[in-house]
Amino acid sequence: MKAALFEKALNLLKLDAAVDYHVLDFGCGKGELLGRLARSVGANSRLVGYDAMDSSIARARVGHPGVEFICDRFVHDLPFADASFDLVVTIDTLECLTNKEALIKEIHRIMKPSGHVLAMHWDWETQIYNVPSRALARKAVWAFSDWKQPWMDAADGQMGRQLWGLFEGSGKFHGTADSFCLIETAYEAGTYGYDRAQDLAAVVTAGGLDKSDYEQLCRELSESYQRGDYFYSLTSFIYHGQRI
Predict the structure, then answer these.
(1) pLDDT in the model for residue 231
(2) From the CA atom positions of the chain, what is the Rg in Å?
(3) pTM of the entire structure?
(4) By C-alpha distance, which of 206, 199, 220, 186 is closest to 141?
């Protein structure tokens, strides 16, 4: 799934492997995108990953020794000089921030005059499970969308659809909207839809979903796969813009 998502991002960016870029990945996780992006830019490019999770940054440093990683939690500003980057990328991170407008302002500040931003985010309310109990599926999707995990400062299941308004509406960028649709027909460990269904156990623990509803949904998902009519879909919305 990540490989396909990253390829979508790279296709939109149209990077030149002969050009050296300064790139920031805000919310870089374990650094997978930067590792993939390194093969699409010049050898002397500066690649920087920024993330608040100690464990993720530790793994990123081991897996991608040629990339610079910073572990910090964003509040109001970023530790970079004005006009430092040609490109800023952020994937599935904005919903976790309480001050999204401050981040957009900072991205604009640290970006070179001709710089680009690429923001991608799953819109969790677009999750689709094909099961007989439609109301139950909707209930589970909404509970998942409202779930604020312990490491998150905020949560917003509709973040994907808000990217366009946040960036274009800021008056600091001008760009285009796009999307990436994940579709799966297998309900097995390691598939995205299966793993998100397992995450619902934590939503039950947090009080966002009844245990009986969760057990019924898992049962219907398994039965759907056995019948051969299992279907899962989730949409990531994308904003690709240039600094004004």
Answers:
(1) 98
(2) 19
(3) 0.95
(4) 199
